[in-house]
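Researcher: We plan to redesign the surface later, but first we want a full-length starting point. Tokens attached.
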């Protein structure tokens, strides 16, 4: 089993920045990949960013490309989402996710590929 805990969400003005963290614990050696998803009110959960466990390649949704940066710290079992130039459209609950299946070399973009989820952290961007 893997446990995930997100932190860092808060209210921020448009144009500002936030740094979200995800701490993984438990059987972390089984993780093949991790990613960030978000869910706005009345909308489905959507992909934000992911990093491959082999190769450290990063991938982003078009809506956040150039503004968000995903990274991982292997020693600390921590994943970071640095969010810059935030827009009101970024307002959502942000979820950290991990998978123990699929490919550690290739990105996975859909929520159903991830077995483990954090509780979510609220990000609110005011105009």
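Model: Full-length starting sequence:
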């Amino acid at each position: 089993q893997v446990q995930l805990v997100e932190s860092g969400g808060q209210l921020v003005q448009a144009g500002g920045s936030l740094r979200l963290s995800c701490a993984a614990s438990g059987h972390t050696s089984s993780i093949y990949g991790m990613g960030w998803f978000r869910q706005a009110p009345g909308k489905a959960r959507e992909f934000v960013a992911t990093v491959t466990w082999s190769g450290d390649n990063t991938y982003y949704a078009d809506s956040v490309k150039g503004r968000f940066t995903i990274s991982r710290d292997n020693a600390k079992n921590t994943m970071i989402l640095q969010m810059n130039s935030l827009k009101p459209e970024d307002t959502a609950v942000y979820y950290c996710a991990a998978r123990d299946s699929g490919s550690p070399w290739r990105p996975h973009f859909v929520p159903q590929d991830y077995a483990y989820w954090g509780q979510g952290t609220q990000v609110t961007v005011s105009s």
